[in-house]
């Protein structure tokens, strides 16, 4: 292995508790520690017995970061010794999904609309400002495709799902591992069979989902995301989401497996995805009460679906004739027909509707006051913190999708013209990133299998993700809500992503991405101040990147040099390389890599 352990102690003010940070210093750019198929064990070094404060044999300089619960103060100052490390118990810190904090907000939340499931960021001074440590016995994650079926137990040390969902074949314990047999509440017999059945239902048994035009899916209440995992062989990209509740950690499992997912809930606000982005919205016992509140959540599904997109509903009201289920079913039928959806199939516990692109029908139902048509100007706003609207859009841009995904990646999405991005600019961007991505791989010098979960933190029109598409990884394209809204263009290219505001932490667990790409992200946030200073964003990057993960930063010289100075304090290794920018000018690009360290 390309490194040694560094031990050091740091006594906390007066107390005799000695703690040690163990640094597994993977040699930067050394392929060696990644070079084999089996996951790397980082066992506790045998020499770490005592609270000895003497640095071990081979280590380079000491890392002096203190372990200390530290809050974000009004002015950010980083200790000489480096950014403090949060105590071990904060190893799953997700700032905007703190169940205890939400408890305090309950009186002001609309519980009948499940507002408590949504993001709630605490005020700045209640945010931590320390590095989130990995849990005890954390190991470098098992790599895709093995990770589809197995992940390290100690990385997601939560037994609840195995206990309550074991019988439904979600996840089982197997020694040091979690095993995912590919089941779900509604597909005990495995996702592949269920997916085939959905294909049969949408094509009258002649084809699969892809031939029914499904390329981008939104999976509501995704569980451990087995549905998404088994759609991949068809070339279908799925955005999976589920709320964070007290003990289930569904999204943590999904991301640990290497499957595209984020924490989210459909309750009172629009989902952070653009209109008309998905060919299918899927709910299999997703625990969403679609029929409540005049079907406002169904209207959100209607917003997200493309014309001729499917809503797949596998839940008791679709097949059970007892209790309240028939009433719920009737309500769903009324709501869907008011929106001019057509029920195309209902069998074996699943109902499928298609959102027909029928303007005449919508206008008629609006006249009958069965629905309200949305104001046009609403439609073009980035859906970030936008309250749900109880209305239905009339879609104006009925563009044909190009026939194949490769065509989609490189053909100019017409929605970009409205955003002021010309076809020439698009082509330039596409070619530029293709070239850059080749260089990135060379400079990272790791096996392609080491990079699975990728985020482009400022994705613009998705050029980076398009160039990455031929590798066995997925990219979460983030378009800052304060930028021009180009996310619909990204979806039109067949890629996926979400809106986000980097003045707040992202809705994901710690240690969930292998690579973060930040193209002029810091410059953009320079003017926004509180909560999104360079240090705040670096801290958030450190939270969500996995140990040994890469952070590639391109920005103005002044910013690049500040990041370079600060990186060691975040326990990042940093290398600078000169690359060309889009206009062939030389630009410094930082390749940072988070060290693998742990509290002992
Ligand atoms: C990359 O890793 C895979 C699987 O771990 C292995 O089969 C392959 O030989 C590796 N490739 C290189 C270039 O090291
Ligand atoms: C670690 O501690 C155990 C018992 O506490 C002892 O037997 C062993 O020799 C120690 N190892 C080292 C490397 O100090
Ligand atoms: C969660 O919120 C509670 C109440 O505001 C707070 O005491 C606690 O420190 C928070 N936990 C984390 C991990 O931020
Ligand atoms: C919750 O939302 C519903 C539907 O918008 C509304 O009728 C109700 O008054 C709200 N309740 C509270 C407590 O705000
Ligand atoms: C996993 O959690 C259990 C109970 O919460 C705890 O006893 C155990 O030490 C944890 N294991 C690891 C490796 O953290
Ligand atoms: C789907 O249809 C094919 C025949 O077209 C059939 O062989 C297959 O068993 C069906 N799958 C399911 C899950 O019903
Ligand atoms: C499936 O068959 C039914 C009846 O034969 C027909 O009404 C329907 O349009 C067909 N659907 C598709 C997707 O071909
Ligand atoms: C569905 O609509 C019909 C006709 O408008 C109405 O009679 C019925 O009460 C509605 N059902 C429910 C459950 O709302
Ligand atoms: C947003 O678009 C306008 C023109 O459509 C352009 O002038 C402006 O620079 C863009 N803003 C950003 C942040 O790219």
Would you give an account of this structure?
- The protein has 600 residues and is an alpha/beta fold.
- Among the domains are: 183-368, Vaccinia Virus protein VP39 (Rossmann fold); 405-599, Vaccinia Virus protein VP39 (Rossmann fold, 3-Layer(aba) Sandwich).
- Helix content is 24%, strand content 19%.
- The strands form four sheets. The chain has a seven-stranded mixed sheet, with helices on both faces.
- Mean pLDDT is 86; it is low at 1-61.
- Bound molecules: 2-acetamido-2-deoxy-beta-D-glucopyranose (9 copies).
- Residues 135-137, 154, 157 line the site of one 2-acetamido-2-deoxy-beta-D-glucopyranose.
Please specify the SSE layout and strand pairing:
Blueprint: E1 5-6, E2 21-24, H1 99-105, E3 150-152, H2 160-165, E4 172-174, E5 177-179, H3 191-203, E6 216-220, H4 226-231, E7 237-242, H5 250-257, E8 261-263, E9 278-284, H6 296-304, E10 305-314, H7 325-338, E11 341-347, E12 350-355, H8 359-367, H9 405-410, H10 415-418, H11 423-444, E13 453-456, H12 463-468, E14 474-480, H13 487-492, E15 497-500, E16 513-519, H14 521-525, H15 534-544, E17 545-554, H16 557-566, E18 572-580, E19 586-594, E20 596-599
Parallel strand pairs: 6-7, 6-9, 7-8, 9-10, 13-14, 13-16, 14-15, 16-17
Antiparallel strand pairs: 1-2, 2-20, 3-5, 4-5, 10-12, 11-12, 17-19, 18-19
Bound molecules: 2-acetamido-2-deoxy-beta-D-glucopyranose (9 copies).
